[in-house]
């Protein structure tokens, strides 16, 4: 027996190896099928969740992107608002500078036209809202030769007269004050009268005429007359807007719109002295608002 096995040992070993390999392959094949089945089953279970997570992840990404864009737009909007505010501030500043330049140019022209007059330039430094159409305070006073009763003008016409002074300032009664009382005349008809403020809160003037039938019309220019205690003759006061009879119809009155913009008085000139019998050329003032 032993001799038989020894003689046939190689074929027997080969047969055993083949048998073992066959059994191993069979077992591996079965295990592979089960593993594949389990993998498919797990894939079927996980796939919906995986798809859902992928969808949610995509939406979250979009949402995060949208929020980022909103923050960017908000920042850009804020920057545009700041730039617009800066632009408007610069525009306002340029407008104010242009207005101030126009006023100063008008004052220079006025001073040149009144070369024989002695004038002092002043700036309005104070104005009480309660007496807005009655008085202003300027930054020149008795130290500059100014005293009560002197006329105050600007290129557009009559502003008022000085009523009190300190060494470095003066109070000016505006033409709009009901107590102003300025001798005036209509340029076209030469009709004379007195111009004064209508009320403490009005920016119009009343022209009380002396003649019964003065032939005054809307649009006529009104200037200071030679019958004046404080003002040189020929200074522009304003323009006739409306003419009406007094309560008893004995005389006529006119509403005059002043040539000076009393809501915006910044720079003025005080008339220290002037040659008698002279007026400013041209008679209607100068400059523009």
From TrEMBL:
Coiled coil: 80-107
Protein's UniProt keywords contain Coiled coil: yes
Keyword Coiled coil: yes
Residue ranges constituting the Rod shape-determining protein MreC beta-barrel core domain according to the UniProt record: 124-271
Pfam families, A to Z: MreC (PF04085)
GO biological process annotation, one example: regulation of cell shape
Protein keywords: Cell shape, Coiled coil
Gene Ontology CC terms, in alphabetical order: plasma membrane
Biological role: Involved in formation and maintenance of cell shape.
Similarity comment text for this entry: Belongs to the MreC family.
Protein name: Cell shape-determining protein MreC
Gene name linked to the record: mreC
């Amino acid at each position: 027996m032993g001799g038989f096995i020894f003689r046939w040992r190689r074929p027997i070993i080969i047969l055993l190896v083949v048998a073992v390999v066959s059994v191993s392959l069979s077992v591996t094949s079965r295990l592979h099928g089960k593993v594949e089945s389990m993998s498919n089953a797990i894939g079927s279970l996980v796939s919906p969740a995986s798809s859902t997570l992928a969808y949610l992840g995509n939406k979250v990404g979009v949402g995060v992107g949208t929020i980022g864009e909103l923050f960017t737009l908000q920042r850009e909007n804020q920057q545009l608002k700041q730039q617009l505010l800066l632009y408007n501030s610069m525009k306002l500043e340029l407008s104010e500078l242009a207005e101030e330049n126009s006023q100063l140019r008008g004052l220079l022209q006025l001073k040149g036209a009144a070369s024989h007059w002695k004038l002092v330039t002043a700036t309005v430094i104070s104005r009480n809202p309660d007496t807005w159409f009655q008085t202003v305070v300027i930054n020149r006073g008795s130290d500059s030769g100014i005293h009560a009763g002197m006329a105050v003008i600007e290129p557009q016409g009559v502003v008022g007269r000085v009523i009190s002074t300190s060494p470095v300032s003066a109070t000016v009664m505006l033409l709009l004050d009901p107590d102003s009382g300025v001798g005036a005349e209509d340029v076209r008809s030469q009709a004379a009268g007195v111009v004064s403020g209508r009320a403490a809160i009005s920016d119009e003037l009343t022209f009380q005429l002396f003649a019964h039938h003065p032939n005054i019309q809307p649009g006529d220019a009104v200037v200071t007359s030679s019958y004046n205690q404080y003002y040189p003759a020929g200074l522009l006061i304003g323009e006739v807007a409306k003419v009406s009879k007094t309560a008893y119809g004995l005389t006529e009155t006119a509403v005059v719109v002043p040539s000076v913009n009393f809501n915006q008085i910044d720079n003025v000139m005080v008339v220290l002295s002037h040659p008698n019998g002279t007026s400013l050329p041209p008679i209607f003032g100068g400059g523009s608002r």
